[in-house]
Input
Amino acid sequence: MQVSDGQSGLVTSYAYKASLIRSAHRFELTEAGLSWHIGGRSGVWRYDEIGAIRLSFRPVSMQQHRFRADISHINGGRIAILSTSWQTAALMAPQDNGFRQFIVELHARMAMSGSRAELTAGLGVRTYAAVLAFMAMLAAAMAALLIRALLIGEFAGVLFILGFAGLFAWQVGGFVRRNRPRRYSFDQLPRSLLP
Output
């Protein structure tokens, strides 16, 4: 993230590469609004024209600590801002400080403009319910396998199931806990969804 004093006032910028073969996605917070440049497209959204922001935790195999902000315009456009950037074919680098500062500043400027945007955090309610249902079915299946392994005296299987359950709870549990659907306000951003 960069902060500069431009011709039209204080400008805060953030950029990331969503893929190796495309140009960087660039964003600036200007006096006029949120300026964005994605590929060959660009635009400026006034802060009071931003209709919604959804913050979420979205890990991927190359980067287990990745955050995302989905910003929607009142007329239907949508842009995504990620906290990681592709560096090489095998390296996706975190940009935690720049992402956090940019998102916090965006919320501050929207609040100053009197924005009435819908601020949500985590997954959608239906998606979250589906994730919880899947986890409950998986937990029941794991419990049944554990009981079966105990009944037949297969202690190596018991250890494997317990180890797998612990690893699964550690990996997926954090994702589910952070992405609980909720609303937030401009002055109370969800800490668990900012790096």
